[in-house]
Structure formats: structure tokens, C-alpha cells
């Protein structure tokens, strides 16, 4: 049973895909931060980098976009593989580009001059003469039937790829989709000639409409949304693109949060957690850096019932299925390293690989399993298109700056000592107030406040300590307070 659940609120839209009540995909789009992948811009070459065989393109976004030479070469020049980026583009040149990868972290978006326009069943490629069929359509007879339809309707010097949703569609439906894309392309062609760079020429659909176009197929049993107006607009769109699915669209009218009703909120919390428990009692630890993701598989509470090899194999197979699910759910891209529990038998390793590859077949994003290295680590890659769900829902901790660790109480006390001694050299006050987290106060009070007394003696200042709940454990405040006789009553009880 597959469902799409849509939570529409004032500032964002969230789309959850459930398979047998389990969250497998999550998409979030905010009004202030709409996705840019698929957008087409008239840009200007800002800088050419021969050493990197690339160029920066100003498309009007916060950061310049990045254009690799292979994405800049026109179709008629593709045969010449020895081309330098300087042979293809020049600084200041206007250029039409499409975003193929979101800006992530400090990196700008990646763009290409090889434009593609996705429809419901087809993808139109205006600049290449090509016919392709989705690799997920495996039946050879169906592939050939679709190829014949496309060859008959395809405009000359244009390319068409049949999407997975095109499987089983008749020529009439395919033609309608193609006509829509051709009209869209004509509109883009006109926009290209108007205005100056940088300029947005075409903006891809918002999350809600992309969901209908790309995900709402016959494999989805139900689509539910909590917004009455958007429910009506979905019905209108489904009526146009897939009228046979109209009965599967429902307006959620229960008086509670739609994600809480389907237990999605708690599953989202698990989706951003570092540790993921397996049903057997084993668990995964997922650590992500900018360059790669590492997944560590652990036995946890599971001890097995036959022998060690059987226990390890069972946990690794369960972990393989969960890893495939977590990659989709968290939208993890780039290089992925998996440290499965060591297996002695080669057959066991092959079994685990097979489980992983089969589980990855459900993933609409391209993945490539490279195999197990001599160190026993599995290497794989997954196409990176947008930031991970964690990067959308969370921000880097201002205290630990992403390390996952904070200063110990003793390090904080050492820093307090340095600050007190610094203030002592530059103040005429006789007393200071130190505000710290309660856990630091506990350490300061050990050994009968001997540390505070020694510091008072060294700095020649009266010190008052105050524990403040809202202060982070790594933070503290040291304030000069004036003459002791004037403030001692006010600060009575602090130390």
C-alpha cells in the first residue's frame, strides 16, 4: 500500500511517501526557498577557469553557478573531446543554462547548456536528435512499441526520452504530452530573446505540482492533502494528466495535524537521528560530512540463536534493506561507505550485496554499488541533486560548529580564569559577577570553593558566581560590578 501525504501550511509544503505505513521519502519546500533544479536562466559567464575546465556563470542567484566543460559543449562539437573550456565560452558571454544540481553549502548550483523539459510521460531534449526509453521499463516488447511511437511523432533534430510513467500509454496520450512540451519550448525560445542576463526564463513546477507530475502514478493507492483549495487545484491537474487516478485523491478533514495522524512526525525525527535501530536489535550509525557519508552497522542487542556467522549475516541483510531506505528518506547523495559487520564467508557477502541492490531498485535516484573493498567496506555512490533532509530541517550548532562536541566544564573554567585575569588588568572595579551554566557551578563548588578563592587572591577581585539555566555549557559571562560594599547585598547568596 503506497500513499502520498501532503501537509500544506502557511510557509511550507511537505510531501511524504509511505510504503506499508513506513516513511520512505520526504520532500520539503518553503515559500522563501523554492527548489531551483530544472529552472532555465539567461546567464552571463563571470569567470573562465582553464585549470578546472569550467566556468562560473552569473544567473542572478546568491552564488555564481558552476559550468563544467562537458556540460558546455554544444552537440555539434561533442566529437572533439580535446576542447578546452576557453574554446567553448568567453568571459562576459551570454549563455542559456539549466540548473541540474542545487547549491549545497558553500558550493553554487551546477548548470548545463544541455536543456531538458520533463513532462508526465516524456522528457524533451531540444538540442539533440535522440530516442531513449527509461531503464525501469524492462519488457523488451513494450520498449520496442514505445520506440516506434516516439519515432513516428518526434520532431526532427529533437530528442525524446520515455519516462517510467509512459509504460503502457497509447500514442494519443504520448502525443498530448509531447505537444504540451513543444508549446512550453516555444515559449522558452521567445523568452530567450527578451531582456538582459541574468534572467530567469523558465521556472520548474512547485513541489505540489511536481509531485503530481513525477510521483502520482498507478502505483500510488491514495494521495491525501489537508488544504481544501490546493485539493481542488490537484483535482483539476489530475483531471488533465491522469483522470483515471482522480478517485484516489482525498481531502483530509480530520481536525488534527495530518503528519501526526499518520505518525509521520515521529518518523521524521528518526530520519534526522544519527542512530537508527533495526527491528532485530542491531543498529546503524550514520555520519555525514560534506564529501561523503559513512554508515556503521552494529549488532547492538541482537545475539542470534544459531552461530556467530548466522547472526552477522542476518543483521547485515537487515541493515542492507534499512540503508537503502535511509538513503531515499534522507536524500543522501555523493560517496557512501558502509562498514558492515565482518563476514568470513564470500557467499554471505554476496547475499548482502544482492539484498542491497534489490532494495535500491525502489530508489528513483541513480545509485551505483561498486562492491566491497579489501578492507571489508562497501563503496557506493548516489546522485546528489539537492541538500539532505537534515540540512533543510536543521542548522549547524552555533556552539559546537558541527563537531557534535562541546567544551567540558573544566575547559570552560580554564577559559573563565583567563578572562578574569584579563579583566583584572583593565578594571577599577573591586568585584566581578561570573554567570555560567549550573553544571559548571557544581564543579566550581567542589573542594569548598578553593578554585574561586585562589582566583580571587590572584586577580585581587571579589568574585560572585551565578548559575543560569539558559546559558549553554560552553558559554559564560564575566562582568565588572564596581565597589564591593555597594553590590555585596545585591549579590548576596551567589557564592
TrEMBL record:
<dbReference type="GO" id="GO:0046872">
    <property type="term" value="F:metal ion binding"/>
</dbReference>
<dbReference type="GO" id="GO:0006364">
    <property type="term" value="P:rRNA processing"/>
</dbReference>
<keyword id="KW-0460">Magnesium</keyword>
<dbReference type="InterPro" id="IPR004659">
    <property type="entry name" value="RNase_E/G"/>
</dbReference>
<feature type="domain" description="S1 motif">
    <location>
        <begin position="38"/>
        <end position="120"/>
    </location>
</feature>
<dbReference type="GO" id="GO:0003723">
    <property type="term" value="F:RNA binding"/>
</dbReference>
<dbReference type="InterPro" id="IPR019307">
    <property type="entry name" value="RNA-bd_AU-1/RNase_E/G"/>
</dbReference>
<dbReference type="InterPro" id="IPR012340">
    <property type="entry name" value="NA-bd_OB-fold"/>
</dbReference>
<protein>
    <submittedName>
        <fullName>RNAse G</fullName>
    </submittedName>
</protein>
<dbReference type="GO" id="GO:0004540">
    <property type="term" value="F:RNA nuclease activity"/>
</dbReference>
<keyword id="KW-0479">Metal-binding</keyword>
<dbReference type="GO" id="GO:0016787">
    <property type="term" value="F:hydrolase activity"/>
</dbReference>
<keyword id="KW-0694">RNA-binding</keyword>
<dbReference type="GO" id="GO:0005737">
    <property type="term" value="C:cytoplasm"/>
</dbReference>
<dbReference type="InterPro" id="IPR003029">
    <property type="entry name" value="S1_domain"/>
</dbReference>
<keyword id="KW-0378">Hydrolase</keyword>
<dbReference type="Pfam" id="PF10150">
    <property type="entry name" value="RNase_E_G"/>
</dbReference>
Amino acid at each position: 500500500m503506497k500513499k502520498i501525504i501532503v501537509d500544506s501550511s502557511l510557509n511550507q509544503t511537505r510531501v511524504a511517501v509511505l510504503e506499508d505505513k513506513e516513511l520512505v521519502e520526504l520532500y520539503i519546500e518553503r515559500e522563501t526557498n523554492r527548489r531551483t533544479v530544472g529552472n532555465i536562466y539567461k546567464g552571463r559567464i563571470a569567470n573562465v577557469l582553464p585549470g578546472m575546465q569550467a566556468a562560473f556563470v552569473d544567473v542572478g542567484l546568491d552564488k555564481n553557478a558552476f559550468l563544467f566543460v562537458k556540460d558546455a559543449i554544444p552537440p555539434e562539437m561533442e566529437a572533439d573531446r580535446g576542447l578546452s573550456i576557453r574554446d567553448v565560452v568567453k568571459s562576459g558571454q551570454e549563455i542559456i543554462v539549466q540548473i541540474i544540481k542545487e547549491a549545497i553549502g558553500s558550493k553554487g548550483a551546477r548548470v548545463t547548456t544541455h536543456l531538458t523539459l520533463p513532462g508526465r510521460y516524456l522528457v524533451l531534449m531540444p538540442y539533440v536528435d535522440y530516442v531513449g526509453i527509461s531503464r525501469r521499463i524492462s519488457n523488451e516488447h513494450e520498449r520496442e512499441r514505445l520506440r516506434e511511437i516516439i519515432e513516428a511523432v518526434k520532431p526532427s533534430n529533437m530528442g525524446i526520452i520515455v519516462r517510467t510513467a509512459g509504460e503502457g500509454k497509447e500514442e494519443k496520450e504520448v502525443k498530448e504530452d509531447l505537444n504540451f512540451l513543444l508549446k512550453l519550448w516555444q515559449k522558452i525560445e521567445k523568452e530567450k530573446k527578451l531582456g538582459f542576463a541574468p534572467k530567469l526564463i523558465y521556472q520548474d513546477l512547485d513541489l505540489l505540482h511536481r509531485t503530481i507530475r513525477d510521483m502520482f502514478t498507478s502505483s500510488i493507492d491514495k494521495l491525501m492533502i489537508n488544504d481544501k483549495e490546493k485539493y481542488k487545484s490537484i483535482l483539476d491537474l489530475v483531471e488533465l494528466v491522469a483522470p483515471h487516478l482522480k478517485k484516489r485523491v482525498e481531502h483530509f478533514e480530520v481536525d488534527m495535524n495530518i503528519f501526526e495522524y499518520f505518525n509521520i512526525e515521529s518518523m521524521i525525527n528518526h530520519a534526522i537521528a544519527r542512530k537508527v535501530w533495526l527491528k532485530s536489535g542491531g543498529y546503524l550509525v550514520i555520519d555525514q560530512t560534506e564529501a561523503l557519508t559513512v554508515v556503521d552497522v552494529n549488532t547492538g542487542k541482537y545475539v542470534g540463536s544459531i552461530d556467530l556467522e548466522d547472526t552477522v549475516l542476518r543483521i547485515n541483510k537487515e541493515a542492507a534493506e534499512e540503508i537503502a531506505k535511509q538513503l531515499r528518506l534522507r536524500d543522501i547523495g555523493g560517496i557512501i561507505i558502509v562498514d558492515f559487520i565482518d563476514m568470513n564467508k564470500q557467499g554471505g557477502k554476496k547475499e548482502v550485496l544482492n539484498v542491497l541492490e534489490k532494495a535500491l531498485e525502489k530508489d528513483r535516484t541513480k545509485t551505483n554499488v561498486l562492491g566491497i573493498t579489501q578492507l571489508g567496506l562497501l563503496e557506493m555512490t548516489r546522485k546528489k541533486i539537492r541538500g539532505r533532509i537534515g540540512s533543510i530541517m536543521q542548522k549547524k550548532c552555533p556552539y559546537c560548529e558541527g563537531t557534535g562536541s562541546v567544551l567540558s566544564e573544566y575547559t570552560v573554567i580554564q577559559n573563565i580564569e583567563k578572562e578574569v585575569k584579563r579583566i583584572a588588568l583593565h578594571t577599577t572595579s573591586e568585584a566581578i559577577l561570573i554567570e555560567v551554566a549550573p553544571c559548571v557551578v557544581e564543579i566550581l563548588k567542589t573542594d569548598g570553593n578553593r578554585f574561586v578563592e585562589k582566583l580571587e587572591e590572584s586577580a585581587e577581585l571579589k568574585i560572585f558566581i551565578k548559575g543560569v539555566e539558559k546559558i549553554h555549557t560552553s558559554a559564560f559571562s564575566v562582568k565588572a560590578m564596581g565597589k564591593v560594599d555597594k553590590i555585596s547585598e545585591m549579590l548576596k547568596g551567589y557564592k
